[in-house]
Amino acid sequence: MKLVKAVLAVSIGAAIAAQSMSAVQAKDLTIGFSQIGAESEWRIANTNDVKAAAAKNNINLKFSDAQQKQENQIKAIRTFIAQKVDLIGFVPIVATGWDNILREAKRAKIPVLIMDRDLTVSDPSLYIAKIGTDSYTEGRKVFDWLDDYIHKNNVKPRNGGDKINIVILEGTVGASVTTGRGNGFNDALKESPNKDMYKILASQTGDFTYQKGQEVMESFLMSNRNDIDVLFAMNDDMALGAIQAIEAAGLVPAKDIIIVSVDGVKGIFQAMMEGKANATVECNPLQGELFFETAKKILNGEAVPKSVFVEEGVFSAETAKEVFPTRKY
Ligand code: AHR
Predict the structure, then answer these.
(1) Where in the chain is the domain with CATH 3.40.50.2300?
(2) Number of Cβ atoms within 10 Å of the Cβ of 178
(3) In a 10 Å sphere around its CB, with 0-12 CB exposed, 13-18 middle and 19+ buried, how is residue 5 labelled?
(4) From the CB of 39, is ligand 1 less than 6 Å away?
(5) Using a 6 Å cutoff on CB, does residue 284 contact ligand 1?
(6) Ligand 1 within 6 A of 130 CB?
(7) pLDDT in tens, 201-217
């Protein structure tokens, strides 16, 4: 797997695990894992990778699908505590609301390892570490790619005005990746010497799904059909849904409206190869191996970094055909 970059503070939280386990063997381990659901092609790839890495590492994985509900994740974590699993992993669907259940895990002396999204807790020792992606940097990369494209191609506003009009399809409300990608994009825009040439015309959640991406894009087009120059979709599935809406409105995706999204799944590569999308900023879902490697370290009482990010690239329509055969998800 493509691996590991940046390291932040070193966690000493592994002490919880070290109390009861030393030099644990993978085959002995039972790990409970609460996934958000199956909202996107990316999420399905992430789930498949977690399951494959668990099998490869001989982990007894108790997998639970929360069907997009935080309450289901909390219930699953409580069940894992009752089952006395060795470690609990989960993807926080939203950033807040985890303090109580994580206190229960801490009282039961079960270490918690987060995957993919971040959370905000009053006490950082409530989880040991997070494996995942850097959504703030992803948002910055989206703006940087866009600004570069607009200048290299001398793109002018479609309505003859003086602003390049952008619409944004946001992800799930309250999810750290939605906030991170939004903040990264907005900060890069505000800091750009070209900031005055851009205007964010509309921004609304499409909940990271194809269906809602299509519906929200339809409503954007209903009010601003002739003004939209750029779509920033916070994931590829929403961009793919939006492409349907753009075509149904009689416009040409990737030409009339520049489309840049996040993830890098095969679906968006197909769209780029068909000339219907312009670029995708990678969010790498292949985090399973790193997750179980880190889990084993924690259970062996080793210190691990508080945050570990997987590597991510940027891919555009120009290179899509060449890169496609190398894509793993
Ligand atoms: O948390 C990662 C995001 O969640 C991905 O961008 C998206 O596709 C998924 O549903």
Answers:
(1) 2-132+286-310, 135-283
(2) 23
(3) exposed
(4) yes
(5) no
(6) no
(7) 999 999 999 999 999 99
